[in-house]
């Protein structure tokens, strides 16, 4: 059997896709780039520029395509996906390298125990309603206990036991704990990286606020050793003898502050201040909606009563 | 300069985190700025380049008085504000007609830039051929040995690669390779590698430097007999003839900081990215095949007694072996008694 012509035809097929150059082409498949290092042929350049450029480009791209088709591929609906290797040419970065963050307390524990991170889905299956509901967020299942319209209460519960409040407290305490732990992680990361000055300023600021957070605004508290003297507001006393003009101005200013203030007017409305805390009472009765809402309700009921309900 | 924004809700926090530095970076966003006077040619060039660079391109609509070679502070401000790291400034003056400045930033500071003069420009509209889909990654072809030897051309190659093709991607859809940007240099017999001794002759060098031709073609993959298709090119897109003008090389320390690579992680090393992996090849179907080399076995030292499969027929030999064992045993027992 004469196989030579079959081999010849096979070789001929390959010829159309192989490219032969004096210097091998530098193919960077990672960046889909090919560099042809042969010096430019002056004669063909001068004779027909565009054609020469197109021919060289075609050869270069043929080599690049051959290299790309030689990479391992994965099938996909749009066609074969070639897995590109990392590029060989180095290009400068746009931003400096990120500094590695130290692992948090949980991350260290999980790494030691070998716990894999699992991301939970946002939707969870609700058997009662037979549908997928949010785990948190809008109409979330985590607020189910608070939003129930009926609550079972134990027989020995105290009289003012509010099950809604109890459920809400559980949730808010969890949120507060999470926030506290996040701040602790952040502080630990800062000390690890050495942001000492920032943390020192933070701590001093917090300390200053706590020192004036007492009933007497920090004025009569015992000072510990090593605590710096607080910078307080200096009271400015006017001179004993001022001119008539200045006195007149001062008195007029006081008078202008006394009348025409809406807040002051509202405060004066509450008559029985010593027995009843009016603000709290309004809040309780209106269930947090306020005096205006109460008035609106009262008017509505009155109007309905007058008209006699539905006609 | 720019006030640090504190995020007030989850969405702004996510946007801020997206702007932070990552190990593997995103593609560089380019800002197209027009100087005080740009001619018709420059307007066309910038429009076409923006079409090739979309969607990672921002175009400033107003004309700005910006002279990058004198004062780069406005570029740095825009880079920080827009989270962009490449600039294309178009400025046409009497002394330097149709000048295009390509600039790169690192860490919101100017890294390097190069001014190119547009000598000849043919827009995409003048070629009545089908164009490639916008957003597809172009293939690039550089044709000249000067791209490896002459420092100015190395800078130009690096800038153009970063501009068109800077993103590192894992995989690419092979039928999606649609267009090629081919950059070639005119032959210049007088030019050899830049001699650092004659520093003053930079002026002459600038005029002697050969021109750059940028051509864009669409790729047609024709079936050949083999798996690799045959490539045919058709002209498409902008044709640019550029000449090199001024440039500013990168500060070596900043360049070193910009070229720092993240340390190879353990999984990457195992995959063999650190060194070339041997005994792996891709066969015709595109699957990865490996070769396993086993040492030559010395058949004389083979332990056949431990190979149950070689024990042969079970029936006859069992009977004979049993008898022989039975014979052996009383003999042994006799011996023991003795």
TrEMBL record, chain A:
Keywords: Nucleus, Ribosome biogenesis. One of its GO terms (cellular component) is nucleus. It comes from the Eukaryota. It holds the Pfam family RRS1. It is found in: Nucleus. GO terms for biological process: ribosome biogenesis. InterPro entries: Ribosom_reg. Residues 75-105, 176-202, 288-311 are annotated as: Disordered. Residues 301-311 have a biased composition (Basic residues). Belongs to the RRS1 family. Involved in ribosomal large subunit assembly. This is Ribosome biogenesis regulatory protein.
UniProtKB/TrEMBL annotation, chain B:
The keyword Nucleus applies. Keywords: Nucleus. It comes from the Eukaryota. SMART domains: Brix. The keyword Nucleus applies. Belongs to the RPF2 family. This is Ribosome production factor 2 homolog. The lineage of its organism: Eukaryota, Fungi, Dikarya, Basidiomycota, Agaricomycotina.
